[in-house]
Amino acid sequence: MTTQHDQDVAALRAFNRTYTRRLGLLDASYDGSPFTLSEARVLYELATRTDPVAAEIVRALGLDPAQVSRTLKRFTERGLVTARESPAHGRHLLLSLTDEGRAAFATLEANTKASVGQLIDDLHPLRRARLLEAARTINTVFDGDAPPSASLRGLEPGDLGMVAARQGVIYAREYGWGADHEALVAEIAARFHQTFDPARDDAWIAQADGRMIGSIFLVRGETPGAAKLRLLYVEPDARGMGVGRMLVEACVARAKALGYRRLDLWTVSVLADARRLYQRAGFKLAEETPARRFDQDLVDQTWSLDLGA
Fold first, then answer.
1. Contact (CB, 8 A) for 281 and 249
2. Could you say which of 143, 167, 190 is where a domain stops?
3. Residues 91, 211: Cα–Cα separation, whole Å
4. Going by DSSP bridges, is the β-strand pair 226-234/262-268 parallel, antiparallel, or unpaired?
5. In this predicted model, what pLDDT tens digit does every residue of 90-129 receive, in sequence order?
6. 3-state secondary structure 102-165
7. Quick one: which of 44, 66, 47 has its CA closest to 55?
8. In angstroms, rounded to a whole number, what is the distance separating the alpha carbons of residues 117 and 72?
9. Domain encompassing residue 280
10. Which CATH number belongs to the domain containing residue 31 in this structure?
């Protein structure tokens, strides 16, 4: 039996095989040029940097220094590269392309653009859009050295639908809840929009790496002086980042700022992680009642937080 990690590794390796085959990266020469792929990458760095030293190219490409040195020697012998001593450091050689080197790069660049352009032009627009979105995502993932950090923002167009959709998907997968739950979330989100009052209501979207990873809503309650915490969720792969705590703290702080004396919430007992989050924030269990919801026997719970405490 394969583990999820094994499946993830296989998926990335399959992508790598497909990508290298479709772009011809395994060919002895790249895009019909006299250069191998590694040589083409070195040539690109030389063309797009001002007077680099060999160490810069080594760091940029993650190549072995000896390999880069051999490539530069071949380029020099072919009249593509020239070197001169650095005025700031005599032991460093500043590299630049010759006229012949710039011409070779221009030809390589034109061929590469035409090759990649043909690849995407042959795709149906739907698949082209998916490919480019995935490529941008991959760049974002590998360009960031620091781990992703979460931040909060207000609602933007499309967020209400996304909150309903993501909660519908997540709770169906994790708890087997069906369309009744998604419809309930959509109803709450729609009512929030229809009755929104900035003096009494608010909402936050948690995001990381440009992606929605959670939400929480603050709405006025039926009892004077009381508000409700609603639609809290955190994406499964964002759990452990402190997102839930951040959302709850923002909601509690805003409820206090708006002058509410109490903050209530409804949940069900099977949502153990959320319950622990509420308890750590100071909420107390006020009431619980057996209920039949989402085709399951559940226990409704009402939790309350005294904002004057």
1. yes
2. 143
3. 47
4. parallel
5. 678 899 999 999 999 999 999 889 888 988 999 999 999 9
6. HHHHHHHHHHHHHHHHHHHHCCCHHHHHHHHHHHHHHHHHHHCCCCCCCEEECCCCCHHHHHHH
7. 66
8. 29
9. 151-306
10. 1.10.10.10
By the 8 A CB rule, do 296 and 176 touch? yes
| Residues 103 and 204 occupy one common structural domain | no
Q: Do residue 135 and residue 277 come from a single domain?
A: no
Q: Per the structure block, which two tokens stand in for 291?
A: 């209920």
pLDDT, residue 16, reads 86
Nearest to 283 by CA among 293, 294, 271, 295: 271
Q: What is the pTM of this model?
A: 0.79
Q: pLDDT tens digit string along 240-276?
A: 999 999 999 999 999 999 999 999 999 999 999 999 9
133 lies in the same domain as 172: no
Q: Which of 143, 167, 192 marks a domain boundary? A: 143
Facing residues of 95 across strands? 83
The token pair that represents 160 in the structure block: 């209400």
294 residue type, one letter: F
Residue 191: left if φ>0, alpha if ψ -120 to 50, beta else—which one? Answer: alpha
Q: Which distant-in-sequence residues (6+ apart) come within 8 Å of 66 by Cβ?
A: none
pLDDT tens-place string over residues 271-293: 999 999 999 999 999 999 999 99
